[in-house]
Description:
Layout: H1 2-10, E1 13-15, E2 29-30, E3 71-77, H2 83-89, E4 91-95, E5 105-110, H3 113-117, E6 122-132, E7 140-152, E8 160-170, E9 177-180, E10 185-189, E11 196-204, E12 210-218, E13 221-232, E14 239-240
Parallel strand pairs: 11-14
Antiparallel strand pairs: 1-6, 2-9, 3-6, 4-5, 5-13, 6-12, 7-11, 7-13, 8-9, 8-10, 8-12
Amino acid sequence: MKKFFVLFCGALLGSGLGADVFSPGGTTFDFQQFAPKATPSGPRKGNLLVNGDFEKPGTVISKSGGRGSWRGGVNVHGKTPNAEKVRELCTRRISADNPAEGKFCVRLETPMQVNDLAPKIMISNRIVQEVLVPETKEETVWELRFKMRGKHLPSHGTPSLVILYAPLRSDPKRPARLIPFKEYRIQRYTLTPEWTDGAFTFRAPAGTKGFYVCPALYGAGTAFLDDISLTPSHAQTAVEVRA
Length: 243
């Protein structure tokens, strides 16, 4: 297991998605178009996520680019002529407003105006990162940890912080692309004004080549996130992701 852990921590590459490919279900990712970036940094030793503590100087939550950065975007889960206006109102930025650790955290904000522009439509404001790992030969267990705080505002559906995640495998039809095993999984949380810890473990099937991690603010409100990490785990109980 120690040899396996060293392999994972020494051969990692980060990647990200643009704002137009956030919807779960059937999305594929072509990682070969990007060159390797710097080695990951993060709040926990062995963290696969790049800059999971948001302390790296000059960090920008961008819509596109190469690996080694968080990406941001907005999903409008329904049809409305005001979709672009909604996306313009929602923001994602690095913030120095009371971080959990260090000097910075990330802030996701979706204002109440979106309720008028897109009535009865759920809005999700999100950041995302993907990482590559050497293809696993057996089932492995992983732990995703993060710190969160914020406030939900009245809006359609169930306002919440949702963590979307998935192990990634090769697409049988196009091996250069990576796709989720079966489907994306979610964990849902309610934000509070004070920092609280979130954590869960999950199993990744043999043949895993990467991971997709996407914290998303559903509905109007403000979410702060800090110290996001994805690390190997020795836990015996975990959420299973079937092949």
